Amino acid sequence: MIIASQKPIEEIRETIKPYKKVLIAACGTCVTVCLAGGEKEAKELADLLSLSGDQEFRVVTPKRQCDSEFLEEFDKDVSWADAGLSLACGVGVQYLAERCTGKPIIPGLNTAFMGTNRDAGYWTEMCQGCGNCVLEKTGGVCPVARCSKSHFNGPCGGSSKGKCEVNDSIDCAWQLIYDRLKSLNQMERLFETIPPRDWSTSRDGGPRKIRRPDVAIEEVTE
Amino acid sequence: MSEGKSRLQKLFESGAFVVTGEVGPPMGADAGHVYHAAEALSGIIDAANVTDNQTSILRMSSIAASLLVQQKGLEAVVQMTCRDRNRIAIQSDLLGAWALGLRNLLVLSGDHQSFGNDRHAKNVYDVDSVQLIKMLSDLQRDGVFYNGKKAKGVPEFFIGTTANPFADPEELQLIRLKKKIQAGAKFVQTQSIYDIDKFEEWMEKVRAWGLHQEAYIEAGVLVNKSLRSIEMTQKVPGMDIPDALVERMRNAEDPKEEGIRIVLELIERIKKIEGISGLHIMAVGWEEIVPVVVERAGLSPRPTIE
Ligand code: SF4
Ligand code: SF4
């Protein structure tokens, strides 16, 4: 899922300052699970922001901000507001903004990464959406997102006792790949040289899209 | 085309025990600094690595400083990390380096930018060092870039790389070294050695894998001049310094002399190891000691080569 964290309250106060009536839009999916922008966080934020004065707040919680199917209620409520404060990931913020002509939608979160929950209050990055998955070669550990240098052919010289040279709190991806391939009896994979990547499938090729003619309702021409 | 070969390559091929060192470019545009460092080492060592923004600290470019070094009669080894440039920039810079008369190249990953003064910089790693070595040696062999286009004038660098005998996982580090050599690395410089027993064990594996027969292996040593210097070295990623050596520096009456003695003892052991073709001496912030170390280690005068 998408992992995000709330922006500092001072920053939020600053960005919503010009607006009297602010609709805080939580999101019921990823950011609810990672405790950054669900209904609970939105209500707490509304209470906190109301303390300081003359602004009015309302909260709405669509199941997913990135999907028009769930935005009817938001569309109604937003007509009341001068601005929207979205507690969704960057996708949700932009998607709401596209629907609200003439009304600013302000981000309340910093969207961080695609990752997983490891422990209470602890999330780690797992995938960078590179568009050309190599996990079958690396024992299911992503070298793009989890090696600080995105190395494809083994660890750098800074790997020490299982940890990355960047800091001790990061597991070295290549130690994990090594351990896993060893346990899978696939050590021969480590001797293969993986050629330079085609990064055009990643963000480097420009903004990406996927079109599926097989599921499209109308035929599209570009 | 042997006249195209670098002095360093010819020396290795002649079977000489090679001695290289380092010139760290300045944190600024001062050519005088580079000239000074090069003059001090010219004739003392066979060639000098010119570091590429080492430990991610922004400095004058390796290629520009390499040219300055060679103007003072010392052969340079250009360093190229994969940290700061994509494949377009790396290859473009190296075409220029070759055109300027630079012949030796050391390819490395580069320390992560979080170690330097520009922690906020973008991290590139378009290619890793194995991929880059292969890209360059394929270009050398076929005259064709990785992108499929023919090169007008082919750089034929003497390509080397690094290895860290003390990094983990040990077996995987060896596999990676093998891949680098298969990709086309002709010489290898190791991380600074302090734990000589561990290094000897590592060399045993290198020999068992036959890697010393496929590339020239230079053992790296670092001369420390004070307790502080050895303690700072301990913090560098991938360094492994036995506490006993730190203690020796702590208890030494003359830490500078102790630092030299430690290195000389290491060199004596290194010289006896089968499969070592040379020594790479580093002395970060104490460059003037290199001639002393070379002399006292019985490694001067350096051989001449035609
Ligand atoms: S290889 Fe690419 S798609 Fe696969 S996990 Fe890594 S970043 Fe994601
Ligand atoms: S220590 Fe491991 S994870 Fe960190 S950059 Fe090196 S190889 Fe990648």
Give the SSE map.
The complex is a heterodimer of chains A (222) and B (306).
Chain A: E1 2-6, H1 9-16, E2 21-25, H2 30-33, H3 39-51, E3 56-60, H4 72-78, E4 83-86, H5 90-99, E5 105-107, E6 109-119, E7 122-127, H6 143-146, H7 173-183
Parallel strand pairs in A: 2-3, 2-4, 4-5
Antiparallel strand pairs in A: 1-6, 6-7
Chain B: H1 7-14, E1 18-23, H2 31-41, E2 47-50, H3 62-71, E3 76-81, H4 87-99, E4 104-108, H5 129-142, E5 158-163, H6 170-183, E6 187-192, H7 196-208, E7 216-222, H8 227-235, H9 243-251, H10 255-271, E8 278-282, H11 290-296
Parallel strand pairs in B: 1-2, 1-8, 2-3, 3-4, 4-5, 5-6, 6-7, 7-8
Helix pairs in contact in B: 2-3, 5-6, 9-10
The structure holds iron/sulfur cluster (SF4) (2 copies).
One iron/sulfur cluster binds at residues 127-130, 133-135, 142, 144-145 of chain A.
What fraction of the residues of chain B are assigned to beta strands by DSSP? 5-15%
Secondary-structure class of chain B: alpha/beta
Output the CATH class name of the largest domain in chain A.
Answer: Alpha Beta
Classify the secondary structure makeup of chain A into a structural class: alpha/beta
The largest inter-chain interface, given as chain pair and residues per side, is: A-B, 31 and 37 residues
Written account of the structure:
The complex is a heterodimer of chains A (222) and B (306). With 222 residues, chain A is α/β, with parallel strands linked by helices. Chain A folds into two domains: 2-112, 3-Layer(aba) Sandwich (Rossmann fold), CATH 3.40.50; 129-195, no CATH class. Helices cover 26% and strands 18% of the residues of chain A. Chain A has helices at 9-16, 30-33, 39-51, 72-78, 90-99, 143-146, 173-183, and strands at 2-6, 21-25, 56-60, 83-86, 105-107, 109-119, 122-127. In chain A, strand 4 (83-86), helix 5 (90-99) and strand 5 form a beta-alpha-beta unit. The model of chain A has no long low-confidence stretch (mean pLDDT 96). Chain B has one domain (2-296): TIM Barrel. In chain B, strand 5, helix 6 (170-183) and strand 6 form a beta-alpha-beta unit. By secondary structure, chain B is an alpha/beta fold. The two termini of chain B are 14 Å apart. An eight-stranded parallel barrel of chain B has the order 1-2-3-4-5-6-7-8, surrounded by six helices. At the A-B interface, helix 7 of A face helix 5 and helix 6 of B. The site of one iron/sulfur cluster has 14 residues of chain A, from helix 7.
